[in-house]
Amino acid sequence: MGTSIAELIADRIDAMPTGERRAAQTLVANYPLIGLKTVADFSVQAGVSSPTILRFVARLGFHNYAEFQARLQDELAAQLQSPLSRTALPASTRGTSPALDQTVENIRETFRHLSEKQLVDIGEVLAGPRAKVFLVGGRFTDPIAGYMAAHLTIVRAGVFHLSGQESNWRDRLIDMGKRDVLVIFDIRRYQDSLLRFAEKAHQRGVQIVLFTDQWLSPIARFARHVVAGRTAVPSAWDSSASLFVAAETLIGEVTRQCDADGARRIREMENLR
Question: Could you tell me which of 113, 95, 116 has the C-alpha nearest to residue 105?
Fold first, then answer.
């Protein structure tokens, strides 16, 4: 599996001039559809010139705009795959070893594109003492949200796992403000209810941290931070292993940043047992 365009952007955005960075941010916020439009349409939406779009595409390693669009079309096709379309696996991809090998490679690739600075920055957002932290996930990823919430609750106050029906999530919007953080887990096929919820939270000024796959959930347009994990394995089902490891890494980072307060909470909890 090759490197996705979203991963290329994550690797190179810090070295981009302002105009190209704006093009990159526009693409991530409208991934991948804005890149499938004409250069002129892309440039208008990004607020930069057409030559800037072409320089941005070249910086990502593409020889021309057509090659860039062909890669995006391949990614869109992969993004729209259902478990049914992935059930007919060749014999060479069946069994434990290929799945295990790909899962390990997914974790390795995820962390190759997840910088130390990004981990620290997200850790700071999640450790903010005045922020409430809300976590929610999709049909298969919500257990990771619950797992992360259970750990964060130990080292800091004001952590809430949003479980149950979408109407219950919406009721919690009244408690969310500009100081607060919403952590969302959403992988293909992306969940419309999470997108609607993220948009409403964004409108209230809530900072959103998104855990998604390499094809990027539409929620990326509202997210302040995006962790894009590799999820594809030789199976009808995607694997959330890379997102789970990323979540555990951030749990460790938040624990480190909470430092004395976190240690005090753990000590008091132990004394209450």
Answer: 113
Q: What is the 3-state secondary structure (H, E, C) of 127-164?
A: HCCCCCEEEEECCCCHHHHHHHHHHHHHHCCCEEECCC
**What span, in angstroms and rounded, lies between the C-alpha atoms of 186 and 183?**
10
pLDDT at 225 (0 to 100): 95
> What is residue 147's predicted lDDT score, i.e. its pLDDT?
97
| pLDDT value, residue 73 | 94
Is 56 within 8 Å of 5 (Cβ atoms)? Answer: no
In which residue ranges of the chain is CATH 3.40.50.10490 found? 106-272
Model confidence at 235: pLDDT above 90 = no
Task: Identify the CATH class of 106-272.
Answer: alpha beta
What secondary structure letter does DSSP report for 36? G
pLDDT per position as a tens digit, 167-211: 888 899 999 999 999 999 999 889 999 999 999 999 999 999 999
As a residue count, the chain comes to 273
Write out the residue limits of the CATH 1.10.10.10 domain(s) in the chain: 5-81
Residues 125-169 have pLDDT tens digits of 999 989 999 999 999 999 999 999 999 999 999 999 998 888 888
Q: Does the domain made of 5-81 have the CATH classification 3.10.20.90?
A: no
- For residues 259 and 261, what is the distance between their CA atoms, to the nearest angstrom? 6
CA distance 63 to 216: 24
Cα(176)–Cα(74) distance, integer angstroms: 38
Distance CA 239, CA 235 (A): 9
Neighbouring C-beta atoms of residue 46, cutoff 10 Å: 23
